[in-house]
Specification:
324 residues, alpha/beta, 16% strand, globular, binds uridine-5'-diphosphate, binds manganese (II) ion
């Protein structure tokens, strides 16, 4: 029955594409060609219609591919909300470029890029626009009390909480994931997390002295955590190692991340109560694949000032504005 429906959809869409393509062709117009083209697309003329027809054809091809690979009736694909904390530093644009170009391979994703800054960084705004991803560019500076405090800082906490607030205000379903700007993500990971109903987890590579942070699995069942720094945590996991269903989050209006260095993941997961480790949804083939790595980029010093007596009339003046 479903196959007939898909066939009908195919036929109707194919007919639409044909009609559009005829419309766009200069030989199939009643009046003078230029006039007809102007009527059809006043801004850019025929190329706009052709582009539309080509896009429809591409989407149709995609729909057919999906229809061929889908056997059971599948509910609408859940949307992924990826929250990325970031801050101005020499590595910021390279990190975001790499992450953006990973996310560009993922369907139905909304990227929340939250800067720990008072003002949006122009280069970040430009980068986001260039990706053509669906995104929001938000600001959430780290509160001064934490910024000026000695010792370890709660990095990215104000940013992630800001992202969570955005989700509470704007989303009703889907899945939320905290993707730091400096990690490495296999695009397969995003399809693993997409069908999360409560909280899903998977291994993270390059993490702690064990080189790995992951749920332990015995006979397809959760049996504990493996992490090089347990420190009495109920959920000794890495930020990159879990995703949460938006509905599950919305049912817990007080869930948020604490400003507690080292205990951000644990605090957030505990704030999702009622939720126990035994309820974790194990992904990545029962936690047997590493699809994300806690890569840490080497910190670079800000670049030395440009000698303007020597280089005032050169490209270096412009280039210096692009780097920190
Ligand atoms: N971050 C931030 N403000 C800071 C430090 C870090 O917004 O002052 C962001 C950073 O861009 C990253 C996340 O918070 O996405 C985690 O920071 P970092 O990678 O430095 O922490 P680590 O992974 O080393 O624990
Ligand atoms: Mn990091």
């Amino acid at each position: 029955m479903k196959q007939y429906k898909v066939m009908w959809l195919f036929v109707v869409l194919a007919a639409c594409v044909l009609v559009l393509q005829f419309h766009a062709s200069s030989t199939w117009v009643a009046g003078p060609p230029q006039q007809a083209a102007q009527d059809a697309a006043p801004d850019s003329g025929q190329p706009a219609l052709r582009e539309l027809a080509a896009r429809l054809a591409r989407e149709l091809a995609g729909a057919c591919r999906d229809a061929q690979t889908t056997t059971a009736a599948s509910p609408a694909e859940p949307r992924l909300y990826v929250i990325t904390p970031t801050y101005r530093r020499p590595e910021q644009i390279p990190e975001l470029t790499r992450l953006a170009q990973t996310l560009m391979h993922v369907r139905n994703l909304h990227w929340l890029v939250v800067e720990d800054a008072a003002n949006k960084t122009r280069l970040v705004t430009q980068l986001l626009r260039k990706t053509r991803l669906s995104f929001d560019h938000l600001l959430a500076p780290m509160p001064d009390v934490y910024k000026t405090r000695r010792g370890p800082k709660p990095r990215g906490v104000s940013n992630r909480n800001c992202g969570l607030e955005w989700i509470r205000a704007n989303a009703t379903s889907g899945v939320v994931y905290f993707a730091d700007d400096d990690n490495t993500y296999d695009i397969e990971l995003f399809e693993e997390m997409r069908w999360t109903t409560r909280v899903s987890m998977w291994p993270v590579g390059l993490c702690t002295k064990f080189g790995l942070s992951t749920p332990i699995v015995i006979d397809s069942k959760f049996a504990g955590f493996y992490d090089g720094w347990v420190a009495g945590r109920k959920f000794p996991v890495d930020m990159a190692g879990f995703a949460v269903s938006v509905q599950f989050l919305l049912q817990r209006p007080n869930a948020k991340m604490p400003y507690k260095p080292g205990f951000e993941e644990d605090g957030f997961l505990k704030s999702l109560a009622p939720f126990e480790p035994s309820q974790i949804e194990l992904k990545a083939n029962n936690c047997s694949k590493v699809l994300v790595w806690h890569t840490q980029t080497k910190k670079n010093d800000p670049s030395a000032a440009l000698n303007m007596t020597k280089y005032a009339n050169t490209n270096l003046v412009h280039l210096k504005k692009l780097i920190v």
